[in-house]
Design brief:
The complex is a heterodimer of chains A (420) and B (229).
Chain A (H helix, E strand, L loop, with lengths): L2 H33 L15 H5 L33 E9 L4 H18 L11 H4 L6 E6 L1 H7 L27 E7 L2 H14 L4 E10 L12 E2 L5 E2 L9 H7 L12 E10 L1 H4 L4 H8 L36 H6 L8 E2 L2 E8 L2 E12 L6 H11 L6 E11 L16
Antiparallel strand pairs in A: 1-3, 1-4, 2-3, 2-11, 5-6, 7-10, 7-11, 8-10, 9-10
Helix pairs in contact in A: 3-6
Chain B lengths: L1 H25 L14 E4 L2 E7 L5 E3 L3 E2 L1 E2 L3 E8 L5 E9 L6 E7 L3 E12 L2 E6 L4 E3 L4 E4 L5 E7 L8 E8 L3 E10 L36 H5 L2
Parallel strand pairs in B: 5-15, 6-15
Antiparallel strand pairs in B: 1-2, 2-3, 2-4, 6-7, 7-12, 7-13, 8-11, 8-14, 9-10, 9-13, 14-15
Classes of the chains: A alpha+beta (420), B mainly beta (229).
Chain lengths: 420, 229
């Protein structure tokens, strides 16, 4: 071949290759720039997202609209407060009936329902001395759950789904947070509304039931990562990954009870556990050690080494030394077990408590709703108690289980079917 | 002769007096439904009689009137939980008829009498008293019974009003209607018929109320004592 022709061809190839490289380079840069402002969380999406862009600080002036006049319906087949969107503030009131008396049990449900039907809709309760507060419900929900003893008092068999939790190895239960006859979950986006509601209901129950404990919780205003429904907990972690979405078949199958007994149909079982976080001890770890204990990146909530919160935990992935990237005793891996999807529905809240023994207690109200504790929660919690390395930095100090009653129709009171 | 006439007159007058008293007390009154408390209403064979103070200030039964069932819409009805003595009931009562309706009496198994009360200003003070002539509700309007305003007053509770339980009250109207309504027992700190220390009177017909947590039964000026002779 002619030498000149060879050189010319080679040069042309180089030019074309260069042009291609430059074009690719430009596209690449462009993608990275735009992906800084729009974060897509679909696993495997070809969007050029890097770890750095996920962990980049988010704008502080994000506006999250909260409407104080917004109303969540009260009457319905199911009680609100389980699949409703998460309100900023939630309080659990644990009550025992003043006497083991079926009529008293009935009266409790009658007055709670009456208050709830009014207050959640932005109308004052009967005899409400602060009607102006009642007019700003801010998505107030009031949800009633009854414990095993409640059924004993009214002389009815408890639902089969309401099982006793076994004593988990790591539990350090304190008597002040023990199981009560019934619980009322009250939640609102407005703290004044919440406080007024707590007071109204407690007044209404005077001479019927006595408050044993209250457990208050809060969630941050913003979602942990835009688009995610998880919120951050007090350790700054993205909390709530791998959770079934309300109003999906997966959710319905896992949460709602189906029964021919109308006092059970469309109810669910709630587990409420008070988990104290040992923050001072946690502070001694560096970020990598903390993340190893959990098995997830703190910033994004993605499994270690991953990019997006929604990615499945890569069980087989190993590092250069042949060790699993997601440690075998990390919380996320242990909780997951063998299942590839969600096995429980949880709706946690953070708490910080006044002064307990001279210290402010920080923790999490672990709140879970399910129709089958044997299938999801009990095996999971057993595994966690056995081998979760994160156990070193948290302590379960309270645990109770309640049957969340079905919803009520207008003119009925919650649990009316229990008395027919 | 003169003496005889006087004696006859005295005897006749005495007989007339005893007979009239006898008639008054025996006339259609059962032994346990005496006209000794304003607002007591007795119903017998679809006829009602109301005990109230007449023009001379004396308690007496009204003429009997015939009853027929009627309907009135009510909402937000509740009664203050109380163990004994006095209590009150509140709520909204609608007149959906085309003519005005006047509620003249009320009755409940929970109390000896249920009076109709109003709150009025007298000599610069808010005073509660029986509403003479009852509550008139115009067509299409709603009577609002509330603490500090018009209300139904239980005088002499027979049974404890417990929160979460249903208290029935039957209302009687001037045109012979009657309707039974349900009031939900509710805890309520206010609506006590009591005035702070040092303030007396201003409340004819009202004394101290025996509300829950109040253990004083015999305060001076208790009108119940004055009426039980």
């Amino acid at each position: 071949m002619n030498k000149t022709l060879l050189i010319k061809t080679f040069s042309l190839v180089l030019v074309i290759a260069g042009a291609v490289l430059v074009t690719v380079g430009i596209l690449g840069v462009t993608n990275t720039t735009t992906s800084d402002t729009s974060i897509q969380l679909e696993a495997g999406a070809d969007n050029g997202i890097t770890e750095n862009s996920i962990n980049a600080p988010r704008p502080l002036s994000e506006e999250v609209p909260i409407s104080t006049s917004a109303v969540t319906p009260f009457y319905g087949e199911r009680q609100a407060g389980v699949d409703s969107s998460v309100n900023l503030f939630q309080t659990f009131l644990g009550y025992n009936l003043d006497r083991e008396d079926k009529e008293l049990a009935r009266s409790a449900l009658v007055v709670i329902t009456d208050d709830a039907a009014r207050l959640t809709q932005g109308t004052p309760a009967l005899g409400d001395m602060e009607p102006e507060i009642a007019q700003e419900p801010a998505n107030l929900t009031i949800t009633v759950g009854v414990g095993e003893n409640f059924y004993k008092i009214i002389g009815k068999n408890k639902p089969k789904q309401l099982v006793k939790l076994p004593a988990f190895k790591t539990d350090k239960l304190q008597p002040q947070w023990k199981q009560t006859d019934f619980v009322i979950q009250i939640s609102s986006n407005d703290p004044l509304t919440l406080s007024h509601t707590i007071r109204m209901i407690n007044k209404s129950l005077d001479s019927i039931a006595t408050l044993q404990w209250r457990q208050d919780g809060f969630v941050p205003v913003a979602d942990a990562v835009p688009g995610s429904e998880s919120k951050r907990n007090l350790m700054g972690q993205v909390d709530g990954t791998v959770n079934p979405k309300p109003n999906t078949e997966e959710f319905d199958n896992m949460v709602w009870v189906e029964s021919s007994d109308p006092s059970e149909n469309n109810g669910t079982v709630m587990v409420l556990r008070r988990i104290k976080l040992l923050m001072d001890e946690w502070d001694l770890l560096d970020q990598a050690a903390q993340e190893n204990s959990i098995g997830r990146e703190r910033g994004s909530g993605a499994p270690l080494g991953g990019v997006a919160e929604s990615e499945d935990i890569p069980l087989e992935k190993t590092d250069a030394n042949g060790l699993p990237v997601i440690p075998l005793d990390s919380h996320a891996r242990v909780a997951r077990g063998d299942a590839s999807g969600a096995t429980i529905f949880r709706r946690p809240y953070n708490y910080d408590e006044g002064l307990v023994n001279g210290e402010i207690e920080f923790g999490q109200l672990f709140i879970m709703y399910a129709n089958d504790l044997q299938k999801g929660f009990i095996p999971m919690q057993t595994r966690i108690a056995e081998s979760d390395s994160f156990n070193e930095w948290n302590e379960t100090i309270g645990s109770s289980v309640y049957f969340i009653l079905p919803g009520a129709k207008e003119g009925e009171f919650l649990g009316e079917n229990l008395f027919t | 002769m003169y003496t005889k006439k006087i004696t006859a007159g005295i005897v006749a007058g005495f007989i007339a007096l005893t007979m009239s008293t006898g008639i008054a007390s025996a006339d259609m009154s059962k032994p346990n439904t005496k006209c000794n408390l304003s607002g007591v209403i007795k119903v017998e064979k679809n006829k009602a009689q109301l005990c109230s103070t007449n023009a001379k200030g004396k308690l007496s039964w009204s003429k009997p009137w015939s009853l027929k069932k009627t309907t009135m819409e009510s909402s937000d009805t509740w009664a203050k939980a109380a163990a004994e003595g006095m209590s009150a009931a509140f709520g909204k009562i609608e007149n959906n008829a085309s003519k005005p309706v006047t509620i003249v009496a009320a009755k409940s198994p929970y109390a000896k009498a249920v009076q109709l009360h109003e709150v009025v200003m007298k000599d610069g003070m808010m005073v509660m008293q029986e509403k003479k002539g009852g509550f008139t509700v115009k067509p299409g309007e709603t009577l609002e019974l509330k603490p500090g305003g018009n209300h139904l007053m239980f005088i002499g509770l027979n049974k404890t009003i417990k929160p979460g339980t249903t208290v029935p009250i039957t209302l009687y109207t001037s045109d012979g209607g009657f309707v039974k309504l349900n009031f939900m027992g509710r805890n309520f700190a206010g609506a006590n018929e009591e005035y702070p220390e040092g303030e007396e009177g201003g409340m004819p017909g009202h004394g101290s109320g025996e509300m829950p947590n109040s253990d004083s039964d015999k305060k001076p000026g208790n009108h119940m004592e004055g009426m039980r002779k």
